[in-house]
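Whether sequence alone determines local backbone shape is best considered at the level of individual chains. Part of our work consisted of pairing the sequence of a single chain with a tokenised description of its backbone. This step matters because it turns folding into a mapping between discrete strings. For completeness, the protein is quoted in full, as a sequence line and a line of structure tokens:

_____
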Amino acid sequence: MPLKITKEMSSHLIKYVRSIDVAFNPFDMRTRSARELLREVNSERFLQANPKLKVNPDIHSKPNAPSVKFSFVDGTDVSFDCREYLANEMLMDVWRTTMKMDDDFEMEGKNVDDM
């Protein structure tokens, strides 16, 4: 059974994301997942949960492959080649990473709101 992330959980876990860079050509058919991910992360709920979150869209006319890069509060980055992933698969990988971060922060007595 796949992992179920509720709205409350995702609103908490998005606090571990510092920035999201989304680059794509809107006229390229390979960009469907990048466009969907950009739509999802630009939601008002995420921006209210994490006012420090920077979403950086790079919409260009170059023939480059679409890409997404997540930067986290602990300094790590995760990059995706959007041709190989669906938007929900990328977000699920990010939620898994941030859940581990959440556990680590709790074990160390840190608070993500202080970062």
